[in-house]
Each structure stands twice: as structure tokens, then as C-alpha cells.
Amino acid sequence: MRCFWNMTRISELIPVQNSFSHTSTLATMAPQETPFQIAIPAEQIALLRKKLELTVLPDELEDAGREYGASLSDIRRLVTRWKDGYDWRKHEAQLNTELPQFTTDIEIDGFGTLNVHYVHKRSDVVDAIPLLFVHGWPGSFLEVRHILPLLTESSPKHPSFHVVAFSLPGYGFSEAPKKKGFELTQYAELGNKLMTALGYNEYVTQDGCWGHLVSEYYHPNNRCKLRGEHSNAWHTNAPMAPPPHPISRPLLFLNHLIFGYTPKEKAGFERSLWFRNKGNGYYHEQSTQPQTLGYGLTDSPVGLLAWIYEKLVNWTDDYPWDDDEVLTWISIYWFSRAGPAASVRIYFEVNKAYPNLLEGATSKTTIPMGYSYFPKEIVKLPKRWLRAPNLVFESDHTSGGHFAAHEKPKELVDDLRKMFGKGGPAFGVVHGRSGYDPQSRL
Amino acid sequence: MVSTENPFKINVPDEKLELLKKKLELTTFSDELEGAGREYGVPLTDIRRLTARWRDGYEWRKHEALLNAELPQFTRDIEVDGFGTLNVHYVHKKSEVVDAIPLLFVHGWPGSFIEVRRILPLLTEASSDYPSFHVVALGLPGFGFSEAPTKKGFEIRQFSELGNKLMLSLGYNEYVTQGGDWGYAITKFMAANYGQKHSKAWHTNFPLGGAPTLKDRPLAYLINLVSKLTPEEKAGLERTAWFFGLGHGYSAEQSTQPQTLGYALTDSPVGLLAWIYEKLVNWTDNYSWDDDEVLTWISIYWFSRAGPAASLRIYFEANKANPNLFRLSLPSKIPAGHSYFPKELIKLPKRWLNTPNLVFESDHDSGGHFAAHEKPGELVGDLRKMFGKGGPAFGVVSGKTGYT
């Protein structure tokens, strides 16, 4: 049975640091960047309006609540707002103000050139740590919004980061691939090439959606021949691992038999089971018939709204979504360069490329790894299932869900600061870029 | 005395036709990967062509009139325990043969009452060579022109109760059933709950079961261990694996978040078209669908009384009430019959099937899931053999042999 566990982390595929030592603090010249401002054509806004005006809503069973899916009263309210009141131009302008955006052409082996949209903000701290932020579905570059000012903030008390948040191909304002087979290897290649193109030969990554565990068995190091392309450490808020198994994870299996689970761990299981039994219908459809689904998501604003909004509610920890906040999130999908149908293909491609991914595969990354645990993440496994020799940082939280960067920006950034800051387990992992001004190192 | 029937004619209001047209004119199409074929879902060329036809050229009124001419339709209020009264739409055609066998035909998803269209004239035909039937094709609540339940929990038990009550209200105290897809589950339940008293025999083209286990069927288990799979059985299991592996996403979503999905299907004609058309292609055996045929099928969903979202809820309710319903064998004392079509979605070795009192089986070398639509002659042929003179279920309904 396919499930969320079969997805893999893009950042884990990014080529890992080799023993080449890199001494200079290079005042790296950022290459020429092509600035980008979101400017949705008026006709698209007009078409959205026309469609919203023709919206036909279904009925709903009495007292359905959220048990059958996104609730009618929420959807009705959101559609009404989207049609009259929600001001896309205002939010578009805010995004353009807050998020310095660019586009660049990246060549991907076998897929030609893709024009990639990304956010790039440098800290004032010259030696800030380059960090690549990778969103997932149904997220977008928007997810970097709350953490961006915190990450780039300079202070002697905590490290600072140069942040790159790219729109995955097929999302936001990035071009989508035209050929079949664009899967994790390609996404990783793209992320790596983007960082390199920006002069970040070494960097760290943070992601929160795309699942765990691709073993380097699938992506041998010889793919990553180009010198100077390094991911030095990675952090995630959605860790996963295969379960205890008598053959593939025998010690863990014994542990599982002998010791029980704590109430917190049991709650985590319930959450995971809820996801598996009630919450992954979207996953099955997207990984098997994405094109079929795509027609409705492309043609119907309310259809797209409901499909995504259900996740925004179910996957967060009682996050008090503001209607305009929801509508901006979803408008990015509606107005996306490639259209919403392109965004669901990643499920198909990954599922096809790695159908048996999690059964038996254990993490073979060697770079330092950090996990932040939020209670309402959709897959919550006991920590001892997740431990690995290179897991150098862990942090627990008492609230927060799947969209950690959006829901809990401060907590997430604090974790990154602890992991990468002075005295932290991944301090100095990027040569010459400690995250601090030289004076503050003394 | 049978209470009088309320005739019904499909008559979709003009405003609905106009709204459909407006929406079709505003259709936004997605792109498609190069060389995608059908691997990712319904091909864009098919959807573009069908949408263009639906928008300009397809005449709903013409097809509406044909349906009204071919299918004598009625509505009736049926009370279902705990759910109040539901106004049920159904097709009812009596044979000239007075003692024809009353037969209840139960469709599934994404089907409708339209699936009785081709078998109806054959079933009701009078002949000395084969039995004749009085046919009732129930429109499931939430489908076609039947009212949908408004409360939670309307599951297979309720559908069965409704089917039984409909037959009784039409004066058919004893009857036989034919069903596939949800119709299989519903008529299986009817066989268990109303068997012998009312349901006298049941026939399905969607027989199910599971690999025998040592505990529940030790002999079958042992036989299974030593038997090799025939090429046909292998093909059947591959088809089954395809269905559960690549063809089951719709079911996963409909069983867990039907409301979420329902918004797109209600608001977007092309969204609904694609969602259903994919099944019409993948679930049939190279059936050559005519575009207008497809559009009529889907228009019934688009113009349905309760809207398309209501039709999905059976998945949620049935799965919640009993996730094992399809696989489960329910105790039943009445004779049962199977028709096997090679492109049915779940094709298990016959020794794995678990229908009690199986008295009739029939193999076919072509045909898929929508047997009544794809292979009406063959399906009716099977029913005639099963219920006709010399057949294993001849005379199950007292005094109604199907012959003059």
C-alpha cells in the first residue's frame, strides 16, 4: 500500500561534501541575477473572477463537520471573499516587497533548460551560512516568508544565513518540466546547481515536506562529480524512517517488542495512523492519476481551494488561518506559471521511480543532520526509529504541525540557530561561513 | 394492491443547460507531459475533444428525449429507517409475459440507471425459448434523479433496505437481483438480509472473495497451495494488481474525503468529465465509446438531482461501516450466479471466490466492468440460462417462471 513513507527528501540527494578542503572565506561575488516581480496579468484576474461568479457549490450532510472533507461553510465563506473583498494586487505587492525574487535558467540533464523562480536574500553578515530552503506540496516559496527576516538577521548572539528559497519546477513561478521522469534526482540537481550558480559552493538545506530516506544506493556519489558542489548539512521538520523490522532493523525490532511506547509516542502513532487511514487519499490519486485530477484543479477555483485548504487545516496545529492568508496561498497555485496540474506530478514521478523506497532502506547520508519535532506533523514516529549516527541535533516542540516554517517560524529558526550556531553541533560546517561577523568570533 | 406509480420524465431546466454552457466556454485546460499517453490519467486530446463537443454540438435535449422514450421512469417515496423518506427515481418496465420474473437491477459508481438501457428490451422480451423479466432499475439515492440522504451513515444496509422496499411497494414480494460494482455489495446484503423471504436469487458480474486462509477455508487453502495459476488467472491477478496499485486513487479519496473532492466535481464540468471518463476507458474492454454516449453518461451526473458530490459518499459510508464489506462473504441461502468478464477490475481465481450457493457460472472472452452496457446480449444470455427452463434457478420466484 502506497503511503507517505514512500516519498523522499530532495535535500538528501544533494551531493554531499567530500574531503576537499575549502579554506578561503571568499567574498564571493554573487553572479548576475535577474530580478523578478510577480505581476499577474489583468486578464487572469478577470477570468478568476468570472469563474468564481459561476461557482456551483455542493450540499453537505447534516453535522458533517470536517469528517467528510473541507467544510461547506468554510469553503463558501472563502469563495465569497475570494470573489469580493480579497485584493490580489495588494498581496502581490506585499510579496514583492518582502521577498526579493529572481529567475534563472538552470540546465537539467535530460530535461533541457528550466527557468527557475526563487527568493534570495543575503544577510548583512558577509560570512552568513548559505541555506537552501525547499518547500513541498501544497506549499510554495511563500513558506519562507516568516522565517526569512529571522534567518537573515544579524546578531552576535546567533548565526545568520543567506537564504535561497526556490520554487520547485511546476510550482509558483518556476517553469515546469515538459518530459516524463522529472523526479527527486532532478529536483536535487536543480537545487544544487542553483546554489552553485549563486556562488554558494557549500551550503546547508532545510526542508519540511518531501519525505525521507533515499539511500545513496539509489544515487551513488558518482552522480555528483562536479567539484565544489556540496551540501554540508541538512535539517528537516518532517523526519521519517522505516519501522522496526526483524531483518532490516533488528535491534529496533527487539526494542519495539520489549519496551512500550510513551503516551506522546502513542499520540504520534495515532496521528500517523489517521494520516494513513484518512488523510492520504490525495496521495494515492496524485501518485497514480495526476492528469485526471489536474483537470478539475485547473478549471475550478473552488475545486483547487478545497483540495489545498483541507491540508492547510488538517496538517496544522490549530493554526488560526486568516482568510486572506489562505487565499494568497492558494492564489499562488491558481496563478502559477505552469498551472496547478503540474504541481501534483511530483507524486507520480517519485512513486514510479521509487516504488519500494521505504521498505528496508535506511538512511545512508553521512552529513550532519538535524530534526525538529512538531506534534502535529502528519507522520510522527518514535525518536528511536529516527536516530542515526549523523543525527547531531534534535529539538522538541509542544505545538506546531506540518508547515513549521509558516506556523512556527521563530521556533524553527531558533532550532537552526542552535544547530548551526557557536557551540552547536553543526557550527562551522560550511567552510569560512560561520554565520557571524569576524569581530564577533573573538 | 400496488399503489399507483408516479411517472417521471427527465426535464433538466433551461437555466442548468445555460450555466453548463457558460462554464464550458470558460474552461481552462491544463498542459500535459510529452508522450504521456494514458499513463498519468486521461489524455488531454480526449478531454479537449469531449469538452468542445459538450460545448458545441452535443444536444442534451435530444438525448434526454431518447432516454425518456426508451426508459419508463417513475419516482416513489420510500421510508428508510433513521433517514426519513427519500424520493427514489427508478426505471420500471413490465414484460408482456404476466408471469415474468421480477428483477431488480442495481448500478454502482460511476454508473447510473442508464446502465439498464441496453439490457432492458432483451430482459423484457417475450419468447418461448427463454424467460422474461419485469425489470426495476433503482436509481441509488444520491445518483441520477433520486434524492440523496441528508444524514450521515447511509450505507449498504440502507441501500439494501431501500431496494427491498421498492420492490415490495411495486407488488413484487419475491424477486431476483442483478448487480455489479456497488450493486454487488447491495444485492449481496439483500441476499443475506431478505433472502428466501423476498430476494430469491442473485446474480453478479463483480464476484469477489480473497485468497483462502487455512483458518476459514482449509480445503480451499490446501487446494490453492498446490494449484498452479493458469495464464488466465495470472492475467486476472495482474489486472487486479493494476487496479489496486494504479487505479485505486479515486477510491482512496472518495472513501476518506468525499466532500473535498466534491467541490471540483460540482463546479467544473471538465473536472467531472475527466474524473469519470478515465473509468469509462480504463474499466472497459476496449469498448468504443461514442463521444455523445460519454457525454450523456456524464451529463446525468452533472444534471443529477443531488449533484455529483453526493454520489461519492457511498464510498465513505460503506467503508466506515465495514471496511471489509467487499471481501466478506455474507451467509445466504439463496442461489447465486456469476458472470465472468476478462476486463473486470478484480479478477480472482474462481476457487478464491466466496459466494455461498453458487449455482451458475458463465465465462466470457471479452467485456469489462460495465457488463450491462458493454455486453448486454451476453449478460442477458446468462440470466436467461440461469433462470430459464432447465436452469439452476428456474422457478425460484413462486408462480413466476418467466414464461407464458
Question: Characteristics of this structure?
Answer:
heterodimer; A: 442 residues; alpha/beta; Rossmann fold; 9-stranded mixed beta sheet; 17 helices; 9 strands; 36% helix; disordered N terminus; B: 404 residues; 15 helices; 41% helix; Epoxide_hydro_N (chain B); Alpha/Beta hydrolase protein (chain B); Epox_hydrolase-like (chain B)
Topology:
The complex is a heterodimer of chains A (442) and B (404).
Chain A: H1 10-13, E1 34-36, H2 42-53, H3 72-83, H4 88-98, E2 101-108, E3 112-121, E4 129-134, H5 148-152, E5 161-166, H6 184-197, E6 202-207, E7 230-236, H7 250-258, H8 263-278, H9 281-288, H10 290-299, H11 301-314, H12 323-334, H13 340-343, H14 345-353, E8 369-373, H15 383-386, E9 391-396, H16 404-407, H17 409-420
Parallel strand pairs in A: 4-5, 4-6, 6-7, 7-8, 8-9
Antiparallel strand pairs in A: 1-2, 2-3, 3-5
Helix pairs in contact in A: 2-3, 9-14, 10-11, 11-12
Chain B: E1 6-8, H1 14-25, H2 44-55, H3 60-70, E2 73-80, E3 84-93, E4 101-106, H4 119-124, E5 133-138, H5 156-169, E6 175-179, H6 182-194, E7 199-204, H7 218-226, H8 231-246, H9 249-256, H10 258-267, H11 269-282, H12 291-302, H13 308-321, E8 336-340, E9 358-363, H14 371-374, H15 376-387
Parallel strand pairs in B: 4-5, 4-6, 6-7, 7-8, 8-9
Antiparallel strand pairs in B: 1-2, 2-3, 3-5
Helix pairs in contact in B: 1-2, 5-6, 9-13, 10-11, 10-13, 11-12
Order of helices and strands of chain A: HEHHHEEEHEHEEHHHHHHHHEHEHH
Structural class of chain B: alpha/beta
| Strand count of chain A | 9
Question: Beta-sheet strand percentage of chain B?
Answer: 5-15%
Number of domains of chain B: 1
CATH topology of chain B: Rossmann fold
- DSSP strand count of chain B: 9
Low-confidence stretches of chain A: 1-9, 17-29, 211-229, 358-362
Structural class of chain A: alpha/beta
What percent of the residues of chain A sit in helical stretches (DSSP H or I)? 25-40%
Name the helix and strand elements of chain B from N-terminus to C-terminus, one letter apiece: EHHHEEEHEHEHEHHHHHHHEEHH
- Identify low-pLDDT runs of chain B: none
CATH fold label of chain A:
Rossmann fold
Q: Say which CATH homologous superfamily of chain A is assigned.
A: Alpha/Beta hydrolase fold, catalytic domain
Family (chain B): Belongs to the peptidase S33 family.
Active site (chain B): 181 (nucleophile), 315 (proton donor), 369 (proton acceptor)
Keywords (chain B): Aromatic hydrocarbons catabolism, Hydrolase
GO molecular function, one term (chain B): epoxide hydrolase activity
